[in-house]
Write a structure and sequence with these properties.
- It is a single chain.
- 9% of the residues lie in helices and 30% in strands.
- By secondary structure, it is mainly β.
- It has two domains: 81 residues, Immunoglobulin-like; 196 residues, Immunoglobulin-like, CATH 2.60.40.
- The strands form five sheets. Strands 16-15-10-9-19-20 form a six-stranded mixed beta sheet, with no helix packed on it. A four-stranded antiparallel beta sheet has the order 1-2-6-5, with no helix packed on it. Strands 3, 4, 7 and 8 form a four-stranded antiparallel beta sheet that branches.
- Strand 5 and strand 6 form a beta hairpin.
- The N and C termini lie far apart (70 Å).
């Protein structure tokens, strides 16, 4: 229907121009190449305060007030457009931190081109803690499934904070945390391969709510919905302040080299290569060259279900492989301070 409407509009203009050609100079005819028939393009949405969200478009646009709705219902009290393509929506009451919302509206540009859209976003969290990914296993077993440890460097609320198996823009599985106030020095353990047994409970009240065999009594346990584990040899984890939001921390691992393949710079697949580039491009990881290579990643070889990959007891964060080491057998310390002991491969 949109294509037909545009075609008819062009035909009408052509008819006017053709009819006028007999009595007007050619240089006065309407230049069709200057017609703007494209609606605004939606670029994204962000919550910037408890009562404000910003919509981003590729050109200046205006919201049609009668079309603007939010679900769950919150009344919008203002919609202010800017020349840079942003529209700030003011809300009547604060959003719930980390809660999922959907905004729907129709916007028009100065030429009358319109776009209807619906976009999800998450309630603004004014108290996101500083966090580090401090330990993980990617070669787990039935008795010690894959999991990831986070350390709170400051206190805060986890509402909306997201740990993704992949990148902040593309992931296989992820954990979007509910509202939970944690203190400085506390640990969070995210189980990426739930067993589907009784007691796998997300802990939002006490650190002993979860009674499953793999629960950690000295950490806040969470279980990834539909989680089937982490990639054993070639993967990444990204921690963001909201789903698809600002990167708080990240880690990339790979046992490949730049010579492993030509098509994907050694990463083995386009998916992995693109995820690495997304993380590096957003400042979550550093490469030694102009583009990231597998050699920039942490090598997981030597790690097992009980030989975790971890930072030191006094964790350093340079966003490089140098921050990480593999602990000795049975040296994993989820929910406790990390060990500085290192796995020493047996000599051949």
């Amino acid at each position: 229907m949109k294509t037909l409407q545009i075609s008819l509009r062009i035909l009408v203009v052509v008819g006017i121009v053709t009819g006028a050609a007999a009595c007007r100079p050619f240089n006065e005819l309407l230049d069709l190449s200057q017609l703007d028939l494209h609606p605004p393009r939606f670029l994204g949405i962000s919550a910037v305060s408890p009562t404000d969200i910003i919509l981003h478009f590729d050109e200046e646009a205006t919201v049609l007030p009668e079309t603007l709705t939010l679900a769950p219902a919150i009344a919008a009290v203002s919609a202010v457009s800017s020349a840079d393509g942003s529209i700030t929506i003011g809300l009547s009451v604060p959003m719930d931190p980390g809660a999922e919302y959907v905004v729907s509206a129709t916007v028009v540009d100065r030429h009358g081109n319109s776009l209807g859209f619906a976009a999800p976003f998450f309630g603004f969290n004014p108290n996101v803690p500083e966090l580090l990914i401090t330990e993980f296993t990617c070669r787990g077993s039935a008795t010690n499934p894959d999991k990831v440890e986070l350390l709170a460097l400051t206190g805060g609320n986890l509402a909306g904070v997201t740990l993704s198996n992949g990148s902040h823009l593309a992931w296989d599985t992820r954990m979007v945390f509910p509202a939970l106030t944690i203190a400085e020095g506390e640990y969070v353990v995210v189980h990426f391969r739930p067993q589907g047994v009784t007691g796998e409970i997300d802990e939002i009240h006490t650190q002993t709510d979860a009674t499953a065999a793999h629960a950690i009594d000295t950490a806040w346990d969470f279980w990834v919905p539909g989680g089937s584990g982490l990639p054993s040899n070639n993967g990444s984890l990204v921690l963001t302040d909201t789903p698809r939001g600002r990167i708080i921390d990240a880690v990339i691992w790979s046992n490949r080299t730049s010579a492993s393949d030509e098509a994907h710079r050694g990463f083995g697949s386009r998916k992995m290569m693109e995820r690495v580039d997304e993380i590096v491009g957003a400042g979550g990881w550093r490469s030694t060259g102009a583009v990231a290579a597998p050699e920039d990643a942490v090598n997981p070889d030597g790690s097992t279900a009980t030989r975790s990959i971890c930072r030191g007891s006094d964790p350093v964060d340079t966003d490089t492989r140098d921050d990480w080491h593999i602990v000795p057998t049975r040296g994993a310390t989820f929910g406790l301070p990390n060990t500085d002991d290192r796995h020493e491969p047996a000599e051949n």
